[in-house]
Design a protein that fits this description.
The protein contains 14 helices and 19 strands. It is of the alpha/beta class. The longest helix is centred in the last third of the chain and has 18 residues. The structure holds flavin-adenine dinucleotide. The site of flavin-adenine dinucleotide has 38 residues, from helix 1, strand 2, strand 14, strand 18 and helix 14.
Protein backbone atom coordinates (compact mmCIF):
# COMPACT_ATOMS: atom_id res chain seq x y z
CA UNK A 1 0.00 0.00 0.00
CA UNK A 2 1.41 3.41 -0.95
CA UNK A 3 0.73 6.59 1.02
CA UNK A 4 0.95 10.31 0.25
CA UNK A 5 2.82 10.95 3.51
CA UNK A 6 4.27 8.65 6.14
CA UNK A 7 4.73 10.15 9.58
CA UNK A 8 6.97 8.47 12.13
CA UNK A 9 6.21 9.23 15.80
CA UNK A 10 2.77 9.29 17.38
CA UNK A 11 3.42 12.10 19.87
CA UNK A 12 1.58 15.41 19.56
CA UNK A 13 3.84 16.65 16.75
CA UNK A 14 3.17 13.53 14.65
CA UNK A 15 -0.55 13.59 15.42
CA UNK A 16 -0.73 17.28 14.53
CA UNK A 17 1.03 16.72 11.19
CA UNK A 18 -1.32 13.80 10.46
CA UNK A 19 -4.41 15.89 11.25
CA UNK A 20 -3.39 18.76 8.98
CA UNK A 21 -2.46 16.51 6.07
CA UNK A 22 -5.62 14.39 6.41
CA UNK A 23 -7.71 17.55 6.53
CA UNK A 24 -6.22 18.49 3.17
CA UNK A 25 -7.18 15.14 1.68
CA UNK A 26 -3.84 13.33 1.96
CA UNK A 27 -3.65 9.60 2.58
CA UNK A 28 -1.45 9.37 5.66
CA UNK A 29 0.16 6.54 7.63
CA UNK A 30 1.24 7.29 11.21
CA UNK A 31 3.83 4.91 12.67
CA UNK A 32 4.34 4.68 16.44
CA UNK A 33 6.74 2.31 18.19
CA UNK A 34 4.67 2.01 21.38
CA UNK A 35 1.27 0.34 21.60
CA UNK A 36 -0.33 3.70 22.43
CA UNK A 37 -0.17 7.25 21.05
CA UNK A 38 0.57 10.55 22.79
CA UNK A 39 4.34 10.29 23.34
CA UNK A 40 5.34 12.55 26.21
CA UNK A 41 1.71 13.59 26.70
CA UNK A 42 0.30 10.08 27.04
CA UNK A 43 -1.99 8.28 29.48
CA UNK A 44 -1.06 4.96 31.08
CA UNK A 45 -4.02 2.73 31.68
CA UNK A 46 -2.31 0.40 34.07
CA UNK A 47 -4.73 -2.39 35.03
CA UNK A 48 -2.81 -3.31 38.17
CA UNK A 49 -3.23 0.28 39.42
CA UNK A 50 -6.81 0.48 38.20
CA UNK A 51 -6.84 4.17 37.28
CA UNK A 52 -5.68 5.91 34.10
CA UNK A 53 -2.75 8.20 34.93
CA UNK A 54 -1.01 10.69 32.65
CA UNK A 55 2.76 10.41 32.22
CA UNK A 56 2.92 13.84 33.89
CA UNK A 57 0.70 16.77 34.80
CA UNK A 58 0.64 19.32 31.97
CA UNK A 59 -0.48 22.94 31.96
CA UNK A 60 -1.36 25.01 28.90
CA UNK A 61 -1.97 28.70 28.28
CA UNK A 62 -4.39 30.84 26.29
CA UNK A 63 -1.58 31.68 23.87
CA UNK A 64 -1.47 28.02 22.71
CA UNK A 65 -2.99 28.94 19.35
CA UNK A 66 -2.00 25.80 17.40
CA UNK A 67 -3.15 23.58 20.29
CA UNK A 68 -6.56 25.27 20.40
CA UNK A 69 -6.84 24.75 16.64
CA UNK A 70 -5.97 21.02 17.09
CA UNK A 71 -8.60 20.63 19.79
CA UNK A 72 -11.22 22.47 17.74
CA UNK A 73 -10.48 20.37 14.66
CA UNK A 74 -10.88 17.11 16.58
CA UNK A 75 -13.95 18.31 18.51
CA UNK A 76 -12.08 18.15 21.83
CA UNK A 77 -12.11 21.81 22.84
CA UNK A 78 -14.60 21.06 25.61
CA UNK A 79 -12.01 18.79 27.26
CA UNK A 80 -10.04 21.84 28.42
CA UNK A 81 -11.00 24.98 30.33
CA UNK A 82 -9.47 28.41 29.81
CA UNK A 83 -9.45 31.04 32.55
CA UNK A 84 -11.24 34.27 31.51
CA UNK A 85 -8.13 36.13 32.76
CA UNK A 86 -4.91 35.16 34.56
CA UNK A 87 -5.68 34.19 38.14
CA UNK A 88 -3.23 32.20 40.28
CA UNK A 89 -2.78 31.82 44.03
CA UNK A 90 0.78 31.60 45.37
CA UNK A 91 1.58 30.36 48.88
CA UNK A 92 4.84 30.89 50.75
CA UNK A 93 6.56 28.41 53.07
CA UNK A 94 4.84 30.08 56.03
CA UNK A 95 1.42 29.63 54.50
CA UNK A 96 0.95 33.28 53.44
CA UNK A 97 -1.30 33.57 50.38
CA UNK A 98 -0.70 36.02 47.51
CA UNK A 99 -3.21 36.15 44.68
CA UNK A 100 -2.11 37.22 41.20
CA UNK A 101 -5.33 38.35 39.58
CA UNK A 102 -5.39 40.32 36.33
CA UNK A 103 -8.77 42.04 36.06
CA UNK A 104 -10.62 41.71 32.73
CA UNK A 105 -9.29 44.97 31.27
CA UNK A 106 -7.94 45.40 27.72
CA UNK A 107 -4.31 44.15 27.38
CA UNK A 108 -1.82 45.27 28.64
CA UNK A 109 -3.82 47.19 31.30
CA UNK A 110 -4.87 43.87 32.86
CA UNK A 111 -1.19 43.09 33.52
CA UNK A 112 -0.44 46.50 35.00
CA UNK A 113 -3.38 46.13 37.38
CA UNK A 114 -2.67 42.48 38.15
CA UNK A 115 1.09 42.65 38.72
CA UNK A 116 0.77 46.13 40.32
CA UNK A 117 -1.44 44.61 43.00
CA UNK A 118 0.50 41.34 43.42
CA UNK A 119 1.41 41.33 47.13
CA UNK A 120 4.15 38.68 46.77
CA UNK A 121 6.42 41.34 45.23
CA UNK A 122 7.88 44.45 46.90
CA UNK A 123 7.78 47.85 45.17
CA UNK A 124 11.45 47.48 44.21
CA UNK A 125 10.77 44.05 42.67
CA UNK A 126 7.75 45.40 40.76
CA UNK A 127 9.87 48.21 39.30
CA UNK A 128 12.47 45.64 38.19
CA UNK A 129 9.70 43.48 36.68
CA UNK A 130 8.43 46.58 34.85
CA UNK A 131 11.97 47.06 33.38
CA UNK A 132 11.81 43.54 32.07
CA UNK A 133 8.36 44.00 30.54
CA UNK A 134 9.39 47.32 28.97
CA UNK A 135 12.33 45.60 27.30
CA UNK A 136 9.84 43.31 25.55
CA UNK A 137 8.38 46.18 23.56
CA UNK A 138 11.69 47.75 22.53
CA UNK A 139 12.84 47.08 18.90
CA UNK A 140 12.15 43.32 18.75
CA UNK A 141 14.54 42.46 15.90
CA UNK A 142 17.58 44.14 17.53
CA UNK A 143 16.66 42.59 20.87
CA UNK A 144 16.36 39.10 19.38
CA UNK A 145 19.71 39.36 17.63
CA UNK A 146 21.39 40.34 20.88
CA UNK A 147 19.59 37.80 23.07
CA UNK A 148 20.40 34.94 20.70
CA UNK A 149 23.89 34.71 22.26
CA UNK A 150 22.82 35.14 25.88
CA UNK A 151 21.40 32.96 28.63
CA UNK A 152 18.31 34.01 30.56
CA UNK A 153 20.50 34.58 33.65
CA UNK A 154 22.69 37.01 31.67
CA UNK A 155 19.59 38.85 30.47
CA UNK A 156 18.28 39.10 34.06
CA UNK A 157 21.66 40.49 35.17
CA UNK A 158 21.65 43.07 32.36
CA UNK A 159 18.20 44.28 33.43
CA UNK A 160 19.25 44.31 37.10
CA UNK A 161 16.64 41.86 38.33
CA UNK A 162 17.11 41.57 42.13
CA UNK A 163 18.02 38.12 43.48
CA UNK A 164 14.84 38.06 45.60
CA UNK A 165 12.70 38.55 42.44
CA UNK A 166 14.66 35.91 40.54
CA UNK A 167 14.27 33.38 43.37
CA UNK A 168 10.59 33.81 44.11
CA UNK A 169 9.24 34.74 40.68
CA UNK A 170 11.56 34.19 37.71
CA UNK A 171 13.17 30.85 38.67
CA UNK A 172 9.83 29.00 39.07
CA UNK A 173 8.41 30.67 35.95
CA UNK A 174 11.46 29.69 33.88
CA UNK A 175 11.35 26.13 35.29
CA UNK A 176 7.64 25.85 34.47
CA UNK A 177 8.02 27.14 30.91
CA UNK A 178 11.45 25.79 29.92
CA UNK A 179 12.14 23.09 32.54
CA UNK A 180 15.69 24.14 33.51
CA UNK A 181 17.53 26.97 35.28
CA UNK A 182 18.06 30.49 33.81
CA UNK A 183 21.86 30.01 33.48
CA UNK A 184 21.27 26.95 31.22
CA UNK A 185 18.73 28.44 28.85
CA UNK A 186 18.52 30.62 25.76
CA UNK A 187 17.34 34.18 26.45
CA UNK A 188 15.81 34.62 23.01
CA UNK A 189 13.38 31.70 23.45
CA UNK A 190 12.24 33.07 26.80
CA UNK A 191 11.97 36.59 25.32
CA UNK A 192 9.68 35.38 22.50
CA UNK A 193 7.58 33.39 24.96
CA UNK A 194 7.15 36.37 27.29
CA UNK A 195 6.17 38.57 24.35
CA UNK A 196 3.53 36.05 23.28
CA UNK A 197 2.17 35.68 26.81
CA UNK A 198 2.25 39.31 27.87
CA UNK A 199 1.90 41.43 24.74
CA UNK A 200 -0.88 39.58 22.96
CA UNK A 201 -4.57 39.22 23.70
CA UNK A 202 -5.63 39.33 27.37
CA UNK A 203 -6.36 35.60 27.45
CA UNK A 204 -2.88 34.76 26.14
CA UNK A 205 -1.71 34.84 29.77
CA UNK A 206 -4.69 32.83 31.08
CA UNK A 207 -4.06 29.27 32.19
CA UNK A 208 -5.69 26.40 30.32
CA UNK A 209 -6.47 23.24 32.30
CA UNK A 210 -7.23 19.65 31.32
CA UNK A 211 -10.66 18.46 32.44
CA UNK A 212 -9.70 14.85 31.75
CA UNK A 213 -6.62 12.80 30.82
CA UNK A 214 -4.38 13.18 27.75
CA UNK A 215 -5.82 10.09 26.07
CA UNK A 216 -9.34 11.54 26.05
CA UNK A 217 -8.13 15.07 25.20
CA UNK A 218 -5.48 14.57 22.54
CA UNK A 219 -5.41 10.96 21.42
CA UNK A 220 -8.93 9.50 21.12
CA UNK A 221 -10.51 12.48 19.31
CA UNK A 222 -7.54 12.76 16.91
CA UNK A 223 -7.56 9.01 16.22
CA UNK A 224 -11.27 9.13 15.38
CA UNK A 225 -10.68 12.09 13.07
CA UNK A 226 -7.80 10.37 11.27
CA UNK A 227 -9.66 7.10 10.82
CA UNK A 228 -12.71 8.97 9.53
CA UNK A 229 -10.46 10.66 6.95
CA UNK A 230 -9.09 7.30 5.81
CA UNK A 231 -5.64 7.58 7.41
CA UNK A 232 -3.80 4.60 8.92
CA UNK A 233 -2.28 4.29 12.37
CA UNK A 234 0.36 1.59 12.82
CA UNK A 235 1.03 1.08 16.54
CA UNK A 236 3.77 -1.10 17.93
CA UNK A 237 6.10 -0.62 14.95
CA UNK A 238 9.37 1.32 15.18
CA UNK A 239 11.46 2.89 12.47
CA UNK A 240 14.94 1.34 12.26
CA UNK A 241 16.34 2.61 8.96
CA UNK A 242 15.70 4.80 5.94
CA UNK A 243 16.46 3.87 2.35
CA UNK A 244 17.68 6.95 0.52
CA UNK A 245 18.66 7.29 -3.13
CA UNK A 246 19.57 10.39 -5.21
CA UNK A 247 18.65 12.85 -2.46
CA UNK A 248 15.23 11.44 -1.62
CA UNK A 249 13.83 8.77 0.71
CA UNK A 250 12.53 5.70 -1.10
CA UNK A 251 11.27 3.62 1.82
CA UNK A 252 11.35 3.13 5.58
CA UNK A 253 12.33 -0.16 7.20
CA UNK A 254 10.48 -1.02 10.41
CA UNK A 255 11.62 -3.18 13.33
CA UNK A 256 9.57 -6.19 12.15
CA UNK A 257 11.52 -6.09 8.88
CA UNK A 258 8.61 -4.68 6.87
CA UNK A 259 9.05 -1.84 4.40
CA UNK A 260 6.70 1.08 3.87
CA UNK A 261 6.87 3.82 1.26
CA UNK A 262 5.19 7.09 0.34
CA UNK A 263 5.67 10.31 -1.59
CA UNK A 264 6.77 12.28 1.48
CA UNK A 265 8.00 11.46 4.99
CA UNK A 266 7.83 13.35 8.29
CA UNK A 267 10.12 12.25 11.10
CA UNK A 268 8.40 13.40 14.31
CA UNK A 269 10.82 11.78 16.76
CA UNK A 270 12.92 13.23 19.57
CA UNK A 271 16.46 14.14 18.52
CA UNK A 272 18.12 11.21 20.35
CA UNK A 273 15.77 8.73 18.63
CA UNK A 274 16.67 10.05 15.16
CA UNK A 275 20.34 9.35 15.97
CA UNK A 276 19.45 5.64 16.29
CA UNK A 277 17.93 5.42 12.81
CA UNK A 278 20.31 3.93 10.25
CA UNK A 279 20.59 6.18 7.21
CA UNK A 280 19.86 9.37 9.19
CA UNK A 281 23.54 10.22 9.85
CA UNK A 282 23.69 12.98 7.23
CA UNK A 283 20.52 14.56 8.62
CA UNK A 284 21.76 14.47 12.21
CA UNK A 285 25.10 16.08 11.27
CA UNK A 286 23.29 19.39 10.59
CA UNK A 287 22.46 19.92 14.28
CA UNK A 288 24.84 17.60 16.11
CA UNK A 289 27.33 20.32 17.08
CA UNK A 290 25.21 21.25 20.09
CA UNK A 291 24.81 19.18 23.29
CA UNK A 292 21.23 17.93 23.45
CA UNK A 293 20.98 17.41 27.20
CA UNK A 294 17.57 16.85 28.70
CA UNK A 295 15.92 17.71 31.98
CA UNK A 296 13.44 15.67 34.08
CA UNK A 297 9.94 16.39 35.44
CA UNK A 298 8.34 14.49 38.32
CA UNK A 299 4.60 14.34 38.99
CA UNK A 300 3.29 13.00 42.28
CA UNK A 301 -0.35 11.90 41.88
CA UNK A 302 -2.34 11.71 45.11
CA UNK A 303 -5.94 10.71 45.83
CA UNK A 304 -7.41 12.10 49.08
CA UNK A 305 -10.63 11.40 50.91
CA UNK A 306 -11.23 15.13 51.46
CA UNK A 307 -10.55 18.08 49.11
CA UNK A 308 -7.36 19.97 49.95
CA UNK A 309 -8.30 23.25 48.23
CA UNK A 310 -11.12 24.72 46.13
CA UNK A 311 -8.56 26.29 43.76
CA UNK A 312 -7.58 24.50 40.52
CA UNK A 313 -3.90 25.47 40.83
CA UNK A 314 -1.63 26.75 43.59
CA UNK A 315 1.97 27.93 43.17
CA UNK A 316 4.37 27.03 46.00
CA UNK A 317 6.93 29.85 46.38
CA UNK A 318 10.54 28.78 47.04
CA UNK A 319 9.83 25.01 47.06
CA UNK A 320 10.99 22.12 44.89
CA UNK A 321 7.26 21.43 44.37
CA UNK A 322 6.31 24.16 41.91
CA UNK A 323 2.58 23.58 41.46
CA UNK A 324 -0.31 21.74 43.04
CA UNK A 325 -3.28 20.97 40.78
CA UNK A 326 -6.64 19.87 42.14
CA UNK A 327 -8.31 17.71 39.50
CA UNK A 328 -11.73 17.16 41.11
CA UNK A 329 -13.50 14.03 42.26
CA UNK A 330 -12.83 10.68 40.64
CA UNK A 331 -14.17 7.19 41.17
CA UNK A 332 -11.67 4.69 42.56
CA UNK A 333 -11.81 1.01 41.47
CA UNK A 334 -12.88 0.13 45.03
CA UNK A 335 -16.13 2.03 44.35
CA UNK A 336 -15.58 5.05 46.61
CA UNK A 337 -14.76 8.56 45.30
CA UNK A 338 -11.57 10.50 45.96
CA UNK A 339 -10.21 14.00 45.37
CA UNK A 340 -7.45 13.83 42.80
CA UNK A 341 -4.39 16.08 43.31
CA UNK A 342 -1.13 16.31 41.36
CA UNK A 343 2.13 17.92 42.47
CA UNK A 344 4.64 19.00 39.82
CA UNK A 345 8.41 19.20 40.32
CA UNK A 346 10.00 20.69 37.19
CA UNK A 347 13.74 20.78 36.42
CA UNK A 348 13.94 17.98 39.00
CA UNK A 349 17.48 16.68 38.27
CA UNK A 350 18.46 16.65 41.96
CA UNK A 351 15.36 14.64 42.92
CA UNK A 352 15.11 12.18 40.06
CA UNK A 353 16.75 9.35 42.05
CA UNK A 354 14.61 9.87 45.17
CA UNK A 355 12.26 7.01 46.04
CA UNK A 356 8.48 7.17 45.64
CA UNK A 357 8.16 7.34 49.44
CA UNK A 358 10.68 10.21 49.74
CA UNK A 359 8.93 12.21 47.01
CA UNK A 360 5.50 11.59 48.54
CA UNK A 361 6.75 12.70 51.98
CA UNK A 362 8.27 15.83 50.44
CA UNK A 363 4.98 16.78 48.77
CA UNK A 364 2.90 16.02 51.88
CA UNK A 365 5.25 18.12 54.05
CA UNK A 366 4.77 21.10 51.70
CA UNK A 367 0.98 20.61 51.69
CA UNK A 368 0.94 20.63 55.50
CA UNK A 369 3.16 23.72 55.80
CA UNK A 370 1.53 25.78 53.09
CA UNK A 371 -2.12 24.75 53.01
CA UNK A 372 -2.49 24.09 56.75
CA UNK A 373 -3.89 20.58 56.17
CA UNK A 374 -3.30 18.49 59.27
CA UNK A 375 -2.02 14.98 58.71
CA UNK A 376 -3.03 14.51 55.04
CA UNK A 377 -3.27 10.79 54.31
CA UNK A 378 -3.63 9.93 50.64
CA UNK A 379 -5.74 6.89 49.77
CA UNK A 380 -3.47 6.22 46.79
CA UNK A 381 -0.22 7.56 45.39
CA UNK A 382 1.46 7.20 42.01
CA UNK A 383 4.76 8.88 41.17
CA UNK A 384 5.54 9.48 37.50
CA UNK A 385 9.15 10.30 36.63
CA UNK A 386 10.08 11.48 33.14
CA UNK A 387 13.87 11.56 32.97
CA UNK A 388 13.96 13.01 29.48
CA UNK A 389 10.96 15.32 29.78
CA UNK A 390 12.39 18.10 27.58
CA UNK A 391 15.71 19.13 26.04
CA UNK A 392 17.57 21.99 27.67
CA UNK A 393 17.36 24.78 25.10
CA UNK A 394 20.74 26.43 25.68
CA UNK A 395 21.86 29.25 23.33
CA UNK A 396 23.96 26.65 21.42
CA UNK A 397 21.03 24.27 21.02
CA UNK A 398 18.68 27.07 20.00
CA UNK A 399 21.14 28.07 17.25
CA UNK A 400 21.11 24.48 15.88
CA UNK A 401 17.38 23.64 16.03
CA UNK A 402 16.45 22.56 12.49
CA UNK A 403 13.29 23.69 10.69
CA UNK A 404 10.80 21.31 9.01
CA UNK A 405 12.63 21.28 5.64
CA UNK A 406 15.74 19.11 5.28
CA UNK A 407 18.35 18.62 2.57
CA UNK A 408 16.52 15.42 1.53
CA UNK A 409 13.84 16.53 -0.91
CA UNK A 410 10.89 14.52 0.45
CA UNK A 411 11.90 14.32 4.13
CA UNK A 412 10.53 16.72 6.76
CA UNK A 413 11.02 17.12 10.49
CA UNK A 414 8.66 17.80 13.38
CA UNK A 415 8.98 17.66 17.17
CA UNK A 416 9.03 20.05 20.11
CA UNK A 417 12.83 20.28 19.78
CA UNK A 418 12.78 21.64 16.20
CA UNK A 419 12.97 25.36 15.36
CA UNK A 420 9.50 26.46 16.41
CA UNK A 421 10.86 29.61 18.05
CA UNK A 422 9.20 28.46 21.28
CA UNK A 423 10.11 26.21 24.21
CA UNK A 424 9.67 22.42 24.05
CA UNK A 425 6.01 22.33 24.96
CA UNK A 426 2.68 20.96 23.78
CA UNK A 427 2.26 24.12 21.72
CA UNK A 428 5.75 23.78 20.22
CA UNK A 429 5.09 20.13 19.29
CA UNK A 430 1.70 20.83 17.70
CA UNK A 431 3.05 23.90 15.91
CA UNK A 432 5.96 21.89 14.51
CA UNK A 433 3.62 19.20 13.14
CA UNK A 434 1.50 21.84 11.46
CA UNK A 435 4.60 23.51 9.95
CA UNK A 436 5.86 20.19 8.52
CA UNK A 437 2.41 19.48 7.05
CA UNK A 438 2.27 22.95 5.52
CA UNK A 439 5.77 22.56 4.05
CA UNK A 440 4.54 19.43 2.23
CA UNK A 441 1.24 20.98 1.13
CA UNK A 442 3.00 24.10 -0.24
CA UNK A 443 5.07 21.92 -2.56
CA UNK A 444 2.11 20.13 -4.04
CA UNK A 445 1.28 21.18 -7.59
C1 LIG B 1 6.25 15.12 32.55
C2 LIG B 1 6.11 16.16 31.48
C3 LIG B 1 5.45 17.34 31.76
C4 LIG B 1 5.29 18.31 30.77
N1 LIG B 1 4.60 19.45 31.06
C5 LIG B 1 4.26 20.29 30.07
C6 LIG B 1 3.38 21.38 30.32
O1 LIG B 1 2.94 21.58 31.45
N2 LIG B 1 3.04 22.17 29.28
C7 LIG B 1 3.50 21.96 28.02
O2 LIG B 1 3.10 22.69 27.11
N3 LIG B 1 4.38 20.96 27.75
C8 LIG B 1 4.76 20.11 28.74
N4 LIG B 1 5.59 19.04 28.48
C9 LIG B 1 6.22 18.92 27.14
C10 LIG B 1 5.30 18.18 26.13
O3 LIG B 1 4.73 17.04 26.67
C11 LIG B 1 6.16 17.80 24.92
O4 LIG B 1 6.79 18.96 24.43
C12 LIG B 1 5.39 17.15 23.78
O5 LIG B 1 4.50 16.17 24.23
C13 LIG B 1 6.41 16.55 22.78
O6 LIG B 1 5.74 15.98 21.67
P1 LIG B 1 6.58 15.44 20.43
O7 LIG B 1 5.62 14.88 19.47
O8 LIG B 1 7.50 16.50 19.97
O9 LIG B 1 7.52 14.28 20.99
P2 LIG B 1 7.14 12.89 21.69
O10 LIG B 1 5.93 13.09 22.53
O11 LIG B 1 8.36 12.41 22.37
O12 LIG B 1 6.73 11.92 20.50
C14 LIG B 1 7.62 11.11 19.81
C15 LIG B 1 6.98 9.74 19.59
O13 LIG B 1 7.84 8.96 18.77
C16 LIG B 1 7.82 7.63 19.23
N5 LIG B 1 9.03 6.98 18.75
C17 LIG B 1 10.29 7.08 19.23
N6 LIG B 1 11.14 6.37 18.48
C18 LIG B 1 10.42 5.80 17.48
C19 LIG B 1 10.74 5.01 16.37
N7 LIG B 1 12.01 4.60 16.12
N8 LIG B 1 9.75 4.61 15.52
C20 LIG B 1 8.46 4.99 15.75
N9 LIG B 1 8.11 5.77 16.80
C21 LIG B 1 9.07 6.17 17.66
C22 LIG B 1 7.73 7.78 20.73
O14 LIG B 1 7.26 6.57 21.32
C23 LIG B 1 6.77 8.94 20.86
O15 LIG B 1 5.44 8.51 20.92
C24 LIG B 1 5.84 18.09 29.47
C25 LIG B 1 6.53 16.91 29.19
C26 LIG B 1 6.66 15.95 30.17
C27 LIG B 1 7.40 14.68 29.84
Amino acid sequence: MRFDTIIVGGGLSGLSAALHLSRSGQRVALIERKRFLGGRAATYDDHTFGLPVDNGQHLMMGCYEATIEYLRLTGALEKVSLQPTQDVMFVTGKGKKHRLYCPPLPAPLHLLAGYGGFSLLTIREKIALGRMLLSLVRSPSTQQNRLRHMTIAEWFAELEQPLSLVEKFWDPLVASIMNAAPHQLSAVVFYRTLRTIFLGHRQNSSLMFFKTDHQRTFVEPATKYLEHKGSFILNGKGLTSMKERSGSVKALILDDGSEISGENYIIALPEHEIRRVAGAEQLVSTWSEARWDSSPIITVNLWFEEPISPLPIIGFVGAPVHWIFTRGEVQLPEGNTAHYVTAVLSAADTLIDATEQQLTNLVLREIVARLGIKNPRPLRVKVMKEKRATYILSPEVEACRPGPITSVSNLFLAGDWTATGFPATIEGAILSGRSAARAILHRLP
